[in-house]
């Protein structure tokens, strides 16, 4: 099934507060992205299986996520979040005429809990608010820490199912 692209589809450019920097993903980022993805899959890493099998399974899941994002969000912008010249996270967003959608935000284990997620959210909120757009996202119910972070930053749950919450923030 094809998806029609709105003429209003566009990428929203914004900056992050120091010491964070947002940059485009390059070919040399693939090893970092693989490590980052693997760090988010504790569910798979905890399986009682051979390390080679787990690495193959996690790699397959990463490829499926990438294909799913590209299919569901064909106009998405992909970026690396850096601190002091080192990659610490990935941000995926897609904008259309009515909203800025946070597709994915992930940080390395050492960068989690340091306030970087909140910094990125505030920058996204400022960019969306300046354009009169809502900021939307979906989060897995199992990712309780992320859901709490979004709620602390003013996101409201607008729909839910057994697997995920759909959340929305609108400028005051």
Automatic annotation (TrEMBL):
<keyword id="KW-0808">Transferase</keyword>
<dbReference type="GO" id="GO:0016747">
    <property type="term" value="F:acyltransferase activity, transferring groups other than amino-acyl groups"/>
</dbReference>
<dbReference type="InterPro" id="IPR016181">
    <property type="entry name" value="Acyl_CoA_acyltransferase"/>
</dbReference>
<dbReference type="Pfam" id="PF00583">
    <property type="entry name" value="Acetyltransf_1"/>
</dbReference>
<protein>
    <submittedName>
        <fullName>GNAT family N-acetyltransferase</fullName>
    </submittedName>
</protein>
<feature type="domain" description="N-acetyltransferase">
    <location>
        <begin position="20"/>
        <end position="172"/>
    </location>
</feature>
<dbReference type="InterPro" id="IPR000182">
    <property type="entry name" value="GNAT_dom"/>
</dbReference>
């Amino acid at each position: 099934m094809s998806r029609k692209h709105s003429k209003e589809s566009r990428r929203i450019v914004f900056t992050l507060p120091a010491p964070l920097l947002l940059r485009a993903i390059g070919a040399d980022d693939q090893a970092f992205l693989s490590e980052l993805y693997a760090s988010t899959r504790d569910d798979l890493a905890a399986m009682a299986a051979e390390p080679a099998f787990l690495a193959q399974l996690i790699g397959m899941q990463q490829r499926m996520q990438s294909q799913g994002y590209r299919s569901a969000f064909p106009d998405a912008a992909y970026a690396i979040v850096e601190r002091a010249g080192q990659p610490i996270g990935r941000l995926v967003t897609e904008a259309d005429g009515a909203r800025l959608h946070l597709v994915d935000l992930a940080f390395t284990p050492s960068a989690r809990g340091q306030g970087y997620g909140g910094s990125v959210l505030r920058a996204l909120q400022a960019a969306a608010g300046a354009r009169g757009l809502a900021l939307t996202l979906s989060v897995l119910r199992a990712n309780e820490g992320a859901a709490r972070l979004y709620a602390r930053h003013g996101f409201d749950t607008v729909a839910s199912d057994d697997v995920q919450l759909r959340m929305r923030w609108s400028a005051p």
